[in-house]
Amino acid sequence: MTKKILIILSEYGYWGEELVGPLGVFDDHGYETVMATPTGGRPRALPPSMDPGFLDPPLGRSVTSEDMARRVREVDESDRLAKPVDISSWVPERPYLSSPGYLRELEAYHRALTELRATVADYDAILIVGGSGPIVDLANNERVHALILAFLEAGKPVGAECYGVACLAFARDWDDRKSIIWGKHVTGHCKEYDYKDGTGFIGVDFNMGPPPYPLEYILRDATGPEGRYHGNVGHPVSVIVDYPFVTGRSTPDSVTTGEKMVAVLEHGLRRYGW
Question: Which parts of this chain are annotated as the region Disordered (predicted)?
Answer without folding.
Answer: 38-61
